[in-house]
Each structure stands twice: as structure tokens, then as C-alpha cells.
Amino acid sequence: EVQLLESGGGLVQPGGSLRLSCAASAFTFSSYAMSWVRQAPGKGLEWVSGISGRGGSTDYADSVKGRFTISRDNSKNTLFLQMSSLRAEDTAVYYCASSPYYRGPSLIWGQGTMVTVSS
Amino acid sequence: DIQMTQSPSSLSASVGDRVTITCRASQNITSYLNWYQQTPGKAPKLVIYGASSMQSGVPSRFRGSGSGTDFTLTISSLQPEDFATYYCQQSYSTPYTFGQGTKLEIK
Questions:
Q1: Which end of chain A is more exposed for a tag (fewer CB within 10 A), N or C?
Q2: What is the tens place of the pLDDT at every residue in A33-91?
């Protein structure tokens, strides 16, 4: 079954760091662009970051630029989001999602991992 | 950044009704418009991509239309499982912004 499984969420203090992972299975991971999308409690969806299939192109929302880094390890079918200088407003469920091409729709979504930034 | 504006923000309807949700982009995004359905506690699910292409497995009562800056999602003959929040998203240029969502509730 085609699947994405996020991990790495948790409680972190403001200014702290966290690394999220997204493990892909049952599809050719390197052929798909990947994204991170987040949803603050009770709020809408916010696109956070995206990366091309080979990892050569990356993009970020202005709200996380310079603080978050997206990367992927195609040999391990895994997507990452390194988050630093975390703020309370980064508190959200973080979803990873796959797209068949870089400007394509997010076809497959993970179940999400919760990140809470609080002292 | 491209701003996406959905209307209405919420909508009450009955089973069997036909409903239309509108999404407007702040600039021309050609047909790079996607629609997602989300139920509470679940990940979003792709419903329509490329403005009017139905994702595999989505019932034919869902229809997307539009191009340029104005788009619509129409659900004909609402079923109980359709009551959810719907989001539009542009994938024309990064950041791939979402609309604020339309919550479809049972009347």
C-alpha cells in the first residue's frame, strides 16, 4: 500500500530545534516531488516547503525561510524537515505529501505529526 | 505570493442539495488549481487537480471548473460523507498557497 508515515514531532521550547521525518513506502520515492504542509490547531492548511524528486530544487514559505530546511534521502525513501529557532506560531500538525511532479497536486498524504512549541 | 480567496467560508446544506464553492486567485494561475477535502482529525484528500480533473476514486458528483483567476467546485446531490472542509490550492508558483477553507455543514 502506498503510504507516507511522519515521525519526530513533540514538545519543544521556543528557540529550540526539531527534525521531522517522513518515510515513504510502495512507490518510487525519487520520482515524486515532496512537500510539507502544516495546520495550526483549528486553522487552515499552510504550505511550508517543497523539494523536487532528486532534491535539486527546494522552496519555502516566507514564514519559515531561513529557519527550516527540507531535504530527502532517496536511498532510504525518506523526507526530512529540519526546524530551528522554533516559535509558538510553528505549533501545528505537520503533514508530508507527495506530488507526481513539481507543480503538481499533493496526491498522497501522511497522517501528520504534531509539533508543539511552548515553554 | 499568490493569494487564494474562497467563498463562502461556511455553508449549510442538506443531503441531496447541489452546492458550489468559489476560489479566486490574486493573479493568473492558468489551470494549476487543486481542491482538497478534509474531515476532522484526518489528512486532506485530493479531490480535483488541474482545475477540472477528477482524482481517481472520487465520485462523479464532484466537478471542478475555471481557469485563470476564477474557479469553482460543485458537488451535485450531496451525500453524508461529503460534509467536510474544502480547500483550494494553487500550484502555479511557490509558495503553493491554500484558500482559507470552506466548511460544509449539514443543515
A1: N
A2: 999 999 999 999 999 999 999 999 999 999 999 999 999 999 999 999 999 999 999 99
Report how far apart, in Å, the C-alpha atoms of A90 and of each of A115, B42, B67, B99 are: 8, 19, 33, 19
Question: What is the rounded distance in angstroms from the CA atom of residue B102 to the CA atom of residue A1?
Answer: 30
Is the preceding omega at residue B59 within 30 degrees of 0, hence cis? no
C-alpha to C-alpha distance for B51 and B65, rounded to whole angstroms: 6
How many angstroms separate the CA atoms of A101 and B70, rounded? Answer: 23
Of A39, A36, A43, the closest CA to residue A97 belongs to A36
Q: Hey, are the CB atoms on A104 and B43 less than 8 Å from each other?
A: no
* Residue of B5, B30, B94 best to disrupt the A interface, most CBs of A under 10 A: B94
CA distance A73 to chain B (A): 22
The DSSP line for B37-59 is: EE-TTS--EEEEETTTEEPTT--
Place of cell 521550547: A13
What is the pLDDT at residue A102? 81
Nearest CA in chain B to A110: B43
Partner residue opposite B46 with nearest CB, options A60, A95, A107: A107
